[in-house]
Structures are given as C-alpha cells and as structure tokens.
Amino acid sequence: MSPTATSVDVKTLIINGENVSARADQTILDVARENGIFIPTLCHLDGLTDVGACRLCLVEIKGSPKLFPACVTKVEEGMEVDTNSERLVHHRRTILELLFAERNHVCAVCVANGNCELQAVAQTQGLTHVRLPYRVGRLEVDTSNERFVADHNRCILCSRCVRVCAEIEGAHVWDIMGRGINSQVLTDLHEPWGASSCTRCGKCIQVCPTGALFDKSKVGVSHPKHPEFLPYLNMMRDGQ
Amino acid sequence: MSQTIVIDPVTRLEGHGKITLKTDDQGNVQEAFFHVTQVRGFEKFNEGRPFYEMPALMARICGICPVSHLVASAKACEAIMAVEIPHTAAQLRRIINLAQTIQSHALSFFYLSSPDLLLGMDADPAERNLFGVAKAKPELALAGVALRRFGQHIIELLGRKRIHPGWIIPGGVTEPLDAAKRDEILGMIPQAYGNVQYALAWYKKIAEKFKDEIENFANFPTMFLGLVNDDDSIEFTDGALRLIDATGNTVLDKVTADQFDHHFGEAVEPYTYMKFPYYKPLGYPGGSYRVGPLARLNIASKMGTPLAGKELVEFKQLAKGPVHGSFHYHHARLIEVLYGIEMIERILADPQILDPHVRATAGVNRLEGAGVAEAPRGTLMHHYKVDEYGKMVWANLVIATGQNNHAMNRGVLNAAQRFVKGSKLEQGMLNRVEAVIRTFDPCLSCSTHAFGQMPLSIELVAPSGEILDEVHR
C-alpha cells in the first residue's frame, strides 16, 4: 500500500466467528495476526514476498471445498474464514510429519535446537511423533563458505533464503533446483557456496527457519536467528 | 562331555555383553569369551559432517562419560585447526572432566559393585543391588548417591546440562565460569571429601574378606597405558601418554595423540564387536595392555595432591612394582575420586579461572588431527581426517574399554577356571565371573560406539548343542 493513499477500501469479514475489518490489500494472515488469531507458518516472513510454499497456513473459506493459503489469499467482503477446524489441524500435522520424515531433523544434535521454527511449530501443533517412515536420506553438506554452512539435510525448502537474497540483498545467489522430492536449494549454477557470487551478507542465515543455514562460529552456542531486520530494511528503502 | 556355558546378558555393566565358557570332558573350563554383541557405527555415519560438529555428535556415544568424548573430540578438532586453547578454557575442561570421572566412578563403585562388596558374591540377586545396599548400610548408599550428584552437578553448572553438555567445543568452551558458580562448587567440596573418605575407609576394611577374589580376578602381569604430566603426576585431560611394562619400566613416554596409531594397532576377533588394541612391536595378543584407574595409578609416580598422594603411597604397597590384581581397580577408583575433588578445589583457586577469554577460533589448517583424554575407564583417543572444507572423511576411535578387552577375556577365563565347577550352574559362581568384568567398569556402549539396557543369562551348552542348564535374570 502506498503511504500517500487518501482513501482506504475497507472490507469486513468473519474469522473463527469473530467480525473483523481489514484493508482490501491485506491477506487473511495479516488480518488474523492483527486480531491476535494464530495461524502457523514456516515460509512466511515479514518483509519478504509470500509464496505459499509450506502450506501450513491453509484455512477454510465458507462456500468453497478448497483450502486457501492465508499468506497469499486477499480478504474479500463477507468472507467467513475458519483457521482451526479439525480438518486443518489434521492437515497441518500431516504436513509437519512429512517435513520431519523427508530429511534429517534430529533436534538433539542440530545447531538450531531450541531456536528452530520447525521445532517450535511442531510443538504448537502438538506433534508428538511421526507416523511415516523416515527417508533418512544423505544429502551433501556444503561447508565451502568460510563463514557459513548449508546443511541440505535440515532444509524444508521454504525458500526464504532464495527470496531474501533476491529481494533484499539483490544478489539472487540462492535458488531452487530439481523437482518434487529431489528439489534442493542451490547457490549460483550449483557452484559450491564458497565459490559462488555470494556477498557474505549473512541475511539467508538469519531468515532460515531451521539449522539448514548456519554460522560456523555458532556451533555449540545457543544460536537464535534475527530476521526482524527485514521490515526495517524495506521501510528505509521505501523512504529513499 | 565338553560343554558351552553362556552368560547372556552380563548385568550391572554399561551396555550389552555376554560370556561363553567352554568346558572339556571333565567339566573344566577351557576357553572363555566375552562378547560385545552390538555395533553402532559412529565412525561411519559421521562421514560428510563438518568436523566442528564432532564433539557434540561423538559425545552421543555415551550418557555416562560424554564429557571425555567431548574433550578428546574437541582436542582432535583443535589439532585440525592447529590452535592452542586459552589457559582458562583448558583449566575449565580439566574441572568438568574430573567431575565426570567422580560421578562415573561413584556409579561404578557404589551402584554397580558395592552390592557384591557389601552383601557378598553369593547373596540373593534380588537383594544384590543398590537398594539392597541402601537397606543394609544406608550411609554407604547415600555417600554414593551424593558423590554422583556432586560430579553431575558440577557438569551441569559448567555445561548447563548433566548429560551431553554442548559447552565443550573445538577451540575451548562456549562460556566462561562466573563467581557464583565457582562458589557453589566450592561449597559442595567439604561434603564430597567426607563421603569419599568414608568409602575409602570402608573399602580397605572389607577388602580383607575378598582375598580369594583379589587373587583370582584378572590378576596377571600386563603393560599399562595412561596420561601423565611432565612432573610424573596423574593427569586426565592434558599431559602425554606413557606405556609401562609389567615390571614398571617405561616402554614409551611422552607419546602425543598424533603418534598413537604409530605405536598401537587394533586387532579384531570374530566373536565380538569390540576391538583389541595392542602395542605394535609386541603384536597381538602379546602387546595387550590395560588402561583405567589401575593403569593410571601404576604409571604415575605421584598424584600431585596431598590426600590422594598419601593414598597412592599406601596403594603402591599392595605389590612390588605395578599392581596387577584387577580387583584393585575398585580401590584405585576411590583414590581417583579423592584426587578429583582435591584437584577441582585447586583449579578453582587459579586466579585466571573467571577469565572471559575461553575460546580460540580457526578454520581447517590440517587435514588430520587426533586428541587423547583419560575417560573414567581409561585412555580415549579420537582421530579424524577431513577434506579441505572441513568435512569428515574418516574417523577412528580407540575406546578405553576396548583396551581392557584382552585382559577382561583373560580375567573371565581365570575366574571361570577357579569358580565354575561341574555341570550345574550356581548364581554365585556366575556372579564371580561377571564381577571380574565389573572390576574394569567396562562401558560396552562406548566400546562398540551399542545402546539399550543390559539384562543377563547363562547357558551351559553341550557339544551337541543341547542346553544342559540355563540361568536368566
């Protein structure tokens, strides 16, 4: 939204039985959060473009059998949204189980243990165990960068690193290659990270929700990430 | 008719093991095998991980002595980084490694072995455990619980976690010690002294009742290996290795971790997953040696602390030259606990102990590195090779318990020949066979890098495969 807008188009809708009002350019996720309604997310990050990759924010909208990702669905007048139905809870847990089963997410020996968004979301969703067999794949760990490590075994393909690198840093070193279960983030044209055009800015480390991208110097140390700088960077740029 | 007796699993040990005894036609035990029955593969699945993750990953081998793995692993990583860690970090690691030795020795002596010592080898197995000890002699059980808590609490204060503290990292430790924690540790020390001195006095008194066991429990000449300081005093975390022969002469001295595989090889036997390290020039099994509390006390000429020093003088009078009876491992353990308390107190008085500089940083400066530390059960060696980006390409671990493997097997044979008679198995005779192994306090989960609990059964098997007798627990 442009800060110079003079008139605001206001929509009213119902989320979980509560009447709420919103600007027409807001997403269901924005409005829910403004009104203190929790919708779990992993790929969404304030300051980055939403892509609806993780599907955790799926909601139900009355009148449609489909499920809608709240992060990319704009509000409409008279919408009736349910964010917490039994069906949604079931789907969210299944998505999380699939994430845990797909790659190696053993918390006990992970650098992000205690500071991991995947771990935190699983706790909020009451995930106590995974019913699916673990694939226990073995992906290459890229330690070629002198400061950072990419452990693809812990990547959930949220694409935050891809977006922050392209949208904020402007380098677009990260991208995603392969299809389906073989998808993987890569640097440049699959060069080792240390040999890529990476600017070493470290933004991808801060936005990565798991221990997939981490700072070598932080091994063994509590390693909280600080992605909250992104909205401020955007604000400063908009102001220029 | 010859028979095979199987003790499976062996109880009150850390890990899974079983014993097979083979008898001749007259029922005399001819051969004995101590089998460690599980394999874990730590050396293999760490390949491809960054080397600086090794201390945290390798420490998962064991919940009893993760600290020793952390220390040996961090030292191997520091060899790869080619750094010397800050003095304060080295001192803090010495404290945490001693704290772990104290808690582990307390576990071995009080929880696992004191039931045999207090209640007797022939006591009812249902009573022959720590609860039986607590009923018969509560002050002994309480001293054990308190000493274990003392060690565990220091580990928690320094490393934030009792088990698998992530505090020890390549380059040092993650955070310095503060005055409040130091004072809390110092406050616990007087009680710890009281408990270990009580246990030492009690042990020396009851040891007289076990003349037969002392004589027959793995009592034979071997070489001994362990760390020692420049001034010949005992050391757990730094120092260099010394190997002495059965008469006490120094065979190797000032051996550093990177020279370990030059001097020592590892033999493999088909009946167990645990390897058999040996001194290369003498080959296997002639070059087998022992490690652990008995070895350390035989190698060092002094403890370096006053109270434990006096105890060492008394200990060395048990034999002319090195003490060979493995029953004395129990005694040595208590002396080391006393030493640990004294040394922790001394290190905490170091004026630099609260210094905030506790970590050195560096990248990959060598493609290979090895680190040695004394775990409670003996010398522990981690040896890694990495690629230019610091990813693990190879690892070898030489575990304390493995180095006692040959001695344990020989000890089991001796004890079985002495105590197991006829074709009918009795609990007491089997317990003596197990108790031989308990003197070494083996950690089988470490030695095979295995998991799970450890129950026990013994089978007496005829050459035809017929099971003649069976005992289970």
Task: List the SSEs and their pairings.
The complex is a heterodimer of chains A (240) and B (473).
Chain A: E1 10-15, E2 18-23, H1 28-34, E3 58-61, E4 67-69, E5 80-82, H2 86-102, H3 117-124, E6 141-142, E7 148-151, H4 160-169, E8 174-177, E9 184-187, H5 203-207, E10 213-215, H6 229-239
Parallel strand pairs in A: 1-5
Antiparallel strand pairs in A: 1-2, 3-4, 3-5, 6-7, 7-10, 8-9
Chain B: E1 4-7, E2 17-23, E3 29-36, H1 42-45, H2 54-58, H3 66-81, H4 87-119, H5 130-136, H6 138-159, E4 168-169, E5 172-173, H7 179-207, H8 211-216, E6 223-228, E7 240-244, E8 250-255, H9 260-263, E9 264-267, E10 276-279, E11 289-290, H10 293-299, H11 306-316, H12 329-348, E12 368-375, E13 378-386, E14 392-398, H13 400-403, H14 405-419, H15 427-439, H16 444-447, E15 457-461, E16 467-472
Parallel strand pairs in B: 6-11
Antiparallel strand pairs in B: 1-2, 1-15, 2-3, 4-5, 6-7, 7-8, 9-10, 12-13, 13-14, 15-16
Helix pairs in contact in B: 3-4, 4-5, 4-6, 4-12, 5-6, 6-7, 7-12, 11-12, 14-15
Overview features:
heterodimer; A: 240 residues; alpha+beta; Ubiquitin-like (UB roll); Alpha-Beta Plaits; 2 domains; five-stranded mixed β-sheet; three-stranded antiparallel β-sheet; 6 helices; globular; B: 473 residues; Cytochrome-c3 Hydrogenase, chain B; five-stranded antiparallel β-sheet; four-stranded mixed β-sheet; 16 helices; 16 strands
